[in-house]
Model the fold of this input.
Amino acid sequence: MTSEEYSSGPLDVPTLDVIAQRAVTHSLVDGWAFQPDSKSPRRLELYFDEDQYPSPITEVRLDVRWFEGGDYTVHSLETRDDDTWQCRWDRHPKPDASKGHFHPPPDAASEVESSTMQATHHLGVLFGVLDWITERIEQLQDG
Done:
């Protein structure tokens, strides 16, 4: 774990549970689990229906951390053979970026952009990210 994961205080596990329950109502989401377990979760993992992705993508997952103060990290990962394409939406204090920011693909590295995520409610953020991922799948299938 990095210090950034805990910079916003403790995880809001009841909110993560609501996110999980609502996420599975979306056609992309196939299931979920707390990792490493439900007794002491460090993140919520949402698993996607890989059949909706074109080849060569073999695994798709969204890692969610929602903190008691309302800050969050939502990390999208697509696995292809030995490569991972990823991006991340964050809301937490960051000295060199706005509180709400985006780490763009393909590696979600230290590069930071302003986030287009306007939602602050956990379900607004969840479905905003799922809409973004839906558009990504459409672009992959078209191209």
Notes: The longest strand covers residues 57-66. Residues 1-6 have pLDDT under 50 and may be disordered.
